[in-house]
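Shipment paperwork, digital attachment
Item: protein structure file
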Amino acid sequence: MVDTMALLPPFLRGARVTRGAGPQPAGHLPAGLPADDEVLLDAPDDRLGPALVAAGRGEWDAAAGLLSGTREAAEWENRDRYARRLAAFAHARTEWFRDWRAAAPDDPDALLLAAQLATDRAWRSPARAELLAPVGALVTAAADAVPHDPVPWRLALDRARGAHAGDAGHAEFERLWTEAVRRSPHHYGCHVAALKYLAASWHGSHRECFDFAEPAADDAPRGSLVRALPVRAAFGYLTDGCGEALPRARLDAAADRAIDLSAAFAAADPWPAEIRNVLAYVLLRLDRRADALEQLRLIGPYATSFPWDRVADDPLGLFLLARRELRTAPDGAVRRGSVHPSGGHGGHTGRGDH
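Attachment content:
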């Protein structure tokens, strides 16, 4: 078991994240940051929010309309995000989704949600590989229902990663990847799924992950979230105690790419919030504290569970703690050379990477 304190920036390792700690007023925070009690964890955007409110009343029509709108407009990134969030709601409120399926069994959006929900449930179980086997039929049904939709192929990539198919699985993964990018060459969710597969299949070979992420970022159009894929590779490296040390310059370059992408969006924009949260964590681990503080300012009130939940049981608490500590922590000198993952500690955080 990895020492999770090794996964935190040096100036946070002596602090303790306490669930339920009192919020700090804005006057105790660096300029430009909202007060603690204004920060939201995984806040939905203004399209998903009403659908979740309606779902809370047991109504599924709003969610169906939301997903059908993304399908008709080919908004694949939004469709992917909304399917994940609605599946999380369906996991907690099974009767809500059961009513939807009963009323519209052939609804292509309900089919996608069923595949996402089944995949999520399998990943939560220790019997993951066994439970993922029958999920294939649900993923195929979702893919057949909307042949041009890349999201079911992202699910297929996630399923392949968890099924532990062995050496034969690499050829199958290549086939699924080809189908995914044929539908959407720069779909962020599919690229993240492929990056995770590389990390899982070539365990410890983070060089493989960077070798995949960097060209993908180069090829992606301006404003595409895929341009931040190398910082996801950097996060994986910094939170995994396996593999050879990578040059510091490669990690800094990944962070710099993501900084450039972040600058293309307005401050306090929920769309790039997760990318900015990942970037802030990576910058903290690299002791680039001034850059990290700037990303925290751009994040505004939009904290996201990932990446903080990979290193703390209270992701919002850790996010808020990082903001507080940065008010007194000067920007450290940027060290060159090599950085080893997890401070040299082996193993994983113990949390699934799904």
